Amino acid sequence: MASITKEKKVELISAFGENAADTGNIRAQVAIITERIRNLTEHLKVHKKDKHTLKGLTSLVSQRRRLLKYYAEKDIEGYRSLIKELGLRR
Fold first, then answer.
1. In angstroms, rounded to a whole number, what is the distance separating the alpha carbons of residues 56 and 20?
2. For residue 66, how far is the Cα from the chain centroid?
3. pLDDT tens-digit profile of 23-80?
4. Above 90 in pLDDT, residue 1?
5. Looking at domain 6-86, which CATH architecture does it have?
6. Contact 36, 59 (CB under 8 A)
7. At residue 2, does pLDDT exceed 90?
8. Which of 29, 30, 34, 65 is the most buried (most CB within 10 A)?
9. What span, in angstroms and rounded, lies between the C-alpha atoms of 35 and 84?
10. How far apart are CA 21 and CA 10, in angstroms?
11. Please, how many CA atoms are within 13 Å of residue 56, restricted to the half-sphere of its CB?
């Protein structure tokens, strides 16, 4: 079970960050965590009893929630556009 490839990570950082090396950008961090959450969710659909992966998924969701809360306080318009781009909160 590969969580996320290096190529996909670089692609997400360049798409959501200021530049290709901007790994600390909140938008880039949330995009990477969202991709990891989607991968783990697909894994758990097949392996329903994998409790260790479920624990990791829960912690990633919590981390993303904290980052999004901070981003909403810092820049509400950027937060709204990020939510739309990533397809969160339908």
1. 27
2. 12
3. 899 999 999 999 999 999 999 999 999 999 999 999 999 999 999 999 999 999 999 9
4. no
5. Orthogonal Bundle (1.10)
6. no
7. no
8. 30
9. 15
10. 8
11. 15
Element (H, E) at 65: helix 51-74
Structure tokens at 34: 């969202």
Domain boundaries, the chain: 6-86
Total residue length of the chain: 90
Handedness of CA 80, 83, 84, 88 (dihedral sign): negative
DSSP state of 22: -
Which of the 8 DSSP states describes residue 48? T
Distance CA 63, CA 48 (A): 22
